[in-house]
């Protein structure tokens, strides 16, 4: 079957009629009928039976549709990629980042970069960790910024910096003068527990589960900045990444390094077979310096 025949067959099967298929494809009904007739002639069997003016898919059509759907999905993705490539331009840097970077790190990096390169334009998407790879593969963005990314075929990782988890608590909280806080030190305090979704959540949950300490979990949340806000309001203590702990908002919390240290990477991902543009590469180097300074 040719691509146009696949498209017409998919539209007829999905919509249930020639008229609906023609409307979906924005063509005339006779042209849809003609393409279907050619497809059936080439295949040597009918795809639809005409019963009382209605089209009824044949058993052969049912078996073909599963494969056709896969082809159609890939063609549709190709169309999105082609459109996104056309939409990108050489003077623009397109970035997808997890929410933690959108509070301080990215705004700081972009603002300082624009001081010397005011002709550059930026597009920023804030996405969940597992959505960033898809945005790159669809060419919606040039760079993904995230924590401890999972290896994805077709994408390369560059580690920009390494950070640590920290304990945060309300200003009046004391830990007997300790400079580093262990999980056992939190045993009798109300604890704001982070979701195990995402690489940081899994890393932290693994550490907590391996500990012999039973924490008093009072709130579960997927959002690290919500956890930080709860701590600032006196609801309890929690463990978050350094980026969240040092970002603006609820600055009244106190911060201690976790003992023993639990590290994570801050990484950029991008296509491995298509080099970054000079502009994107230049900004990525600037972003790396910004993150290292932010964590210092």
What does this protein look like?
By secondary structure, the protein is an alpha/beta fold. The protein folds into 3 domains: 3-85, Winged helix-like DNA-binding domain superfamily/Winged helix DNA-binding domain (Arc Repressor Mutant, subunit A, Orthogonal Bundle), CATH 1.10.10.10; 92-160 and 265-295, D-Maltodextrin-Binding Protein, domain 2 (3-Layer(aba) Sandwich); 163-264, D-Maltodextrin-Binding Protein, domain 2. 44% of the residues lie in helices and 23% in strands. It has 10 helices and 11 strands. It has helices at residues 3-15, 18-25, 29-43, 59-87, 105-114, 129-137, 198-210, 224-232, 242-246, 278-295, and strands spanning 48-51, 54-57, 92-97, 121-126, 143-147, 155-169, 190-194, 216-221, 238-241, 254-257, 263-271.
Q: What structural keywords apply?
A:
single chain; 296 residues; alpha/beta; Arc Repressor Mutant, subunit A; D-Maltodextrin-Binding Protein, domain 2; 3 domains; seven-stranded mixed beta sheet; two-stranded antiparallel ribbon; 10 helices; 11 strands; 44% helix; elongated
Strand content: 15-25%
Major β-sheet, in short?
Answer: 7 strands, mixed
Kindly identify the CATH topology of the largest domain: D-Maltodextrin-Binding Protein, domain 2
Structural class: alpha/beta
Supply the number of structural domains: 3
What is the string of SSEs from the N terminus onward? HHHEEHEHEHEEEHEHEHEEH
How many helical elements? 10
Low-confidence stretches: none
How many beta-strand runs?
A: 11
CATH class call of the largest domain: Alpha Beta
